[in-house]
Structure formats: C-alpha cells, structure tokens
Amino acid sequence: PAINDLIIKNAEGGKAACAYQAFDMAGRVVLSGGIPANITHINLNGIVPGVYLLKIYKGDSEDGHVVFVKN
Q1: 43 vs 62: CA distance, rounded Å
Q2: Disulfide check for 18: which of 1, 35, 37, 41 has CB 3.0–4.6 Å away?
Q3: With a threshold of 0.70, does the pTM exceed it?
Q4: DSSP 8-state class, residue 15
Q5: pLDDT tens per residue across span 43-70
Q6: CA–CA distance from 11 to each of 22, 25, 30, 49, 69 (Å)?
Q7: How far apart are CA 50 and CA 60, in angstroms?
Q8: Element spanning 56, H or E
Q9: Residues 6 or more apart whose Cβ sits within 8 Å of residue 42
Q10: CA distance linking residue 59 with residue 71, whole number of Å
Q11: pLDDT tens-digit profile of 11-49?
C-alpha cells in the first residue's frame, strides 16, 4: 500500500521518454505525467484511498503496468 507517494525507477536511466497514467477502477485517468529521471516520485495526495492501475509508457506504447493500493 502507498500513503503519500509512489516511487518509480526508470529502467532506461532517464534516456528514453517515459510517462505514466494512473486509472481508478472505473477506468478514469486520475494522475498522469512524465518520468524524466532515474527515479520519480508520484504524489498521491490528490486521490482518494482505493485500488488503482498504473500504466507505464515508453514512447507511444505501454511498457508495463502495476496495480497499487492508496491508503
């Protein structure tokens, strides 16, 4: 579970353009942004507690995803 933030590590070392989108269970995008550095902190203070899907994109294609719980 996450409380205040998620920490994302860019496997490309910040060399490739990566981005993220977080979706609630209704499929709405609740957070989005870029992953410009090796490690990016995603602030979760603007979303309500619940279960979310985080998708990671490299360029125009999805590179991975993870389900997380915000407490």
Answers
A1: 21
A2: 35
A3: yes
A4: -
A5: 999 999 999 999 999 888 898 999 999 9
A6: 19, 27, 24, 28, 23
A7: 28
A8: strand 50-58
A9: 5, 6, 7, 8, 20, 22, 31, 33
A10: 31
A11: 766 677 789 999 999 999 999 998 887 888 999 999 999
Q: SS3 for 41?
A: strand
**Running DSSP on this structure, what letter comes out for residue 38?**
S
Q: Which residues pair with 56 in a beta bridge?
A: 20, 64
Give me 48's structure tokens. 């309500």
Task: Copy the structure tokens of residue 16.
Answer: 């490739």
- Pairing type for strands 39-43 and 5-9 reads antiparallel
In terms of residues, how long is the chain? Answer: 71
